[in-house]
Amino acid sequence: MPLDKKFYKMSRQERLDTLKPSAESRQIFENMALNPEVANNLTENQISEFEIPLAVCFIKVDGKDFTVPMATEEPSVIAAANNGAKLADNFSILKNDRLMSGQIVFHDVQDSQALSTTIVAQRKQIFELALTSYPSIYKRGGGLIDYTCHSYEDWLSVDFSFDTRDAMGANMINTMLEAIANYFRGIFPNEKILFAILTNENCQCTTTVECRIPIEKIGLEVAKNIVKASDYAQVDSARAATHNKGILNGVEAVVLATGNDSRGAVAAIYAGADPHKGFSQWRVNNDNSELIGEITLSLPIATAGGATHVLPKAIAAHELLKNPDAKQLAAIIASIGLANNLAALKALVTKGIQAGHMSLQARSLALSVGARGQEIDQLTEALKKADHLNAETARKLLEAIKNPSVS
Ligand code: MEV
């Protein structure tokens, strides 16, 4: 498409003029709730905004009740989160570490032992550089915590850990790393630096939560089958992927609603765990009195910085949560993930997943074929009784609702 003005430099109206969507789509794109300045500055080439429903889950974490906002387009996610949260009653925090990481990588290193010894000896200068390159994080009580070196073939990585307080800290980490990398360039003129960047392998930023369900609440047979289903996710990667998807259903919905970096969270979760095994484990205790679930997730979650306090809905979401700090929010998110997992496993080993999903799926199918107003309830009910739950059936049934005399 030949453009006489660069697309990213255009106003939103000019971009839409250039793209020429249909009149109907144009109106949909034009209709925005977000402040145009905020939207335009949060992304490049911005043409509109994207809405998805925001719902809540009520959950108790470490004895405190939270109303957790969740943004998702999948109808059953919220029902599952609330079912699991209710069944478990409380989620206890077993571990909650929060340090972020970054690395400076050298390549074509001749003597990595000598290089790492010199870098380790530069501790005072490196800590000073971290402070002078990003003083504001030190004012908030954070900053560079430690660094070590590791080598692989002729690469050498200097691995840093940072306390970024309640922020995810991408900008501050990258700023500090680039300042330190420039210092290295000066003191090691013969060495080559390949890059300096944070790592999304946040192994020092992990949260473990546990829940205990009294057996009388769930029945021993169901509890044992939940354990078997969870054990199976440890040995079959095909099942692990689905087991973990159910966990991510809840995790991602909260990450999104709180304006967090959803890609960073998923990258960290997968980097911090064996991706071919279930992220959670379930067991029944020795005297068969409790079903116990545990999950450990790397969660580089923020309650400050990034979009967390720019997007109005994210600000309101944090307020609904009573403005937890980043560690608390990570524990809430891990608990929601475990709640979703519990509800999914229970449904799977009892009545199956479709029974609970049916009515929600019928409703979203009704919407997708254009039912509006009273038609939504009518079509949902008709679909629940239909032999096949698909768009073709939905369209035919909607037609019959719209034109009762024809059918
Ligand atoms: C569907 O979104 C998630 C489930 O498939 C998870 C699972 O199977 O554990 C129900």
Task: Please provide a written account of the structure.
The protein has 407 residues and is of the alpha+beta class. The protein has 4 domains: 7-42, no CATH class; 55-97 and 205-349, 3-hydroxy-3-methylglutaryl-coenzyme A Reductase, Chain A, domain 2; 100-199, Hydroxymethylglutaryl-CoA reductase, class I/II, NAD/NADP-binding domain (Alpha-Beta Plaits, 2-Layer Sandwich); 356-402, Helicase, Ruva Protein, domain 3. The chain contains 17 helices and 10 strands. The strands form 3 sheets. A 4-stranded antiparallel sheet has the order 3-8-10-9. A 4-stranded antiparallel sheet has the order 5-6-4-7. The protein has a two-stranded antiparallel sheet with strand order 1-2. The longest helix has 24 residues, at 326-349.
The major beta sheet can be summarized as: 4 strands, antiparallel
Question: Helix- and strand-based class?
Answer: alpha+beta
Mean pLDDT over the residues: 95
Bound molecules: (R)-mevalonate
In short:
It is built from 17 helices and ten strands. By secondary structure, it is α+β, with helices and mostly antiparallel strands. The chain is globular.
Sequence-ordered SSE layout with sheet pairings:
Elements: H1 12-19, H2 23-30, H3 36-42, E1 54-61, E2 64-71, H4 75-88, E3 91-96, E4 100-107, H5 112-121, H6 123-133, H7 135-139, E5 143-152, E6 155-163, H8 170-187, E7 192-199, E8 206-214, H9 215-218, H10 220-235, H11 237-257, H12 262-271, E9 280-284, E10 290-298, H13 312-320, H14 326-349, H15 353-368, H16 374-385, H17 391-402
Antiparallel strand pairs: 1-2, 3-8, 4-6, 4-7, 5-6, 8-10, 9-10
Helix pairs in contact: 4-14, 6-8, 10-11, 10-14, 11-14, 15-16, 16-17
